[in-house]
Every structure is written in structure tokens, then in C-alpha cells.
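[09:14] KT: can someone run the structure on this one? pasting the chain below
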Amino acid sequence: MERMVAEQWIEGYSRLACDMVPICSFCYSHGGYNGDKNGYNLPAGTDVFISFIAACKKPPVYCIITEYMSQGTLRMYLNKKEPYSLSTETILRLALDISRGMEYLHSQGVIHRDLKSNNLLLNDEMRVKVADFGTSCLETQTQESKGNMGTYRWMAPEMIKEKPYTRKVDVYSFGIVLWELTTALLPFQGMTPVQVAFAVSEKNERPPMPPSCLPALAHLIKHCWAANPAKHPDFSAIVSDLEKYDECVKEGLPLTLHSGLVSGKAILERFSQDCQVNNNDVKISLVP
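[09:31] RB: done, C-alpha cells below
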């Protein structure tokens, strides 16, 4: 799609983006659109999605007008970064923005079906908003869909194979995006889309997990892209885990491998440090 930026004050937005859409794409992508400015009944003020302002479908102009996201896509942002250079705080902040948006989307019975770093946009405050609902659908409509939806590098195996699928395909895609955040790399770099599709669906391959990835994040990523979709966590669980991780990092505590909870030993070590700083003579120990 061709994108233009307009300097116009509309409904509180000083800058707007206008995406010029081919007629066939426009008609398809708005098959689930209900006429409300918030698309799938998203409440006004929901700040985890890019705001839809208006659309034009009068020949020869077919376009979608949305709020303008000044920092571009998440993929553009990562392309400017050195590999493995994002701080844990940044990874968690961006991952929480994405997962909270997807948690809400799924709570409304909607599947995105093309969640990827190119469809995640950044604003001036470097907060992420979920965008591009051109292939999204109600979960009850998945059986009616024909052919592949989405992009192979982020696409779940069951979608590649055109098998029945659920909202868990978005969780798989999120796992790939979370891997991108930890590495800043393009998934399956050096492979063609067809090669990726074959590797993922027939050989159960995934992007290599970097040794520098925190065990807790690596554990979450592997759960998200597990071969069995039934093992994928819901976004509510993902948000809960990421919030625990974020709290640990802010408190200066290490992340544990599985649950996202800090080990008792780590808590006692931190408590001991605080006591020493405050000159408190306190003896503490773990109780079996």
C-alpha cells in the first residue's frame, strides 16, 4: 500500500496517515468491518491499536485514514539496532504493549492472523500499537477462510498447512516477534518465504535461540511457538508473565526459568542487601 501523511487536525489528531489500497484488497480487508470507526467494536480510547479515522471507497479513490505513527514499524526500529542490543527493560515494555493489545483483541473474539513486526507501529513515546487488520477475522469465521493468511516468517504451521486453527496462531506469531525483540534480527534471515514455510511446517524448525536470551524469555518464546498449538499460552497468561518479569527487572531481581516468579533465594539475597544498606543486623534463612 502507498502511504501519505496529511497535516490536518481531525478529532484531536494533528497528523494522519492515508493508505492507498487496491480495490480488491480494500473490499476483502473490509469484509469484517462493521462501519464503526473502531472496527470490530473496539472501544473509543483503546490505546493499544492504531486509531481508525475514516475510509474512502468511491472510485477511483480507495484509502484508509488512520492516526500517524511517527516512529514507523517495529521492524524499521529493529533494523536500526545492533543485534542483541535491546535492554531487557525495552524488550519487556514493547512486548507488554503488544501482548496487551492482543489480549484485548482475543477477548473480543477476533484473530489478527498477520501479527508481525511490520504490523506493529511506534509513536513518539515509543509505545507499540497493533495495526493492519486486513486479514483479521472473527474466530467463528476461521472455517470459512480459504488459502493462507499472513506472512510465512511469522505464520503458524497449522495455517501454512491450511489445517483448522484457532486464536493460538496469533500466539505463535507473537513468539516470533518476541524472538525479534531479543535479537533485533529478521526471523529466518537468508531464507525465501517458501523455504521458511517448508522448514516450519515440515521440519518443525524455528529461529535459533541466542545464548544471550534470558532463560525466562526463552522459555516463554518456546511455549508460544510450540509445535502443538494446544500448548500455546493465552495472551492473558503471557501478559501476566511479562508483568512479573517487568516487576522483577525494576526491582533488580533475576528472572527464574519457568513461572516468572523470583526464587526465594534471590529475594533473601536482595533483602539482605537492603538490610546492610540500612545497617540492620537481621539474620534470615530459607525454611525447607
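[09:33] KT: thanks! The longest helix spans residues 88-107.
[09:34] RB: yep, looked fine to me
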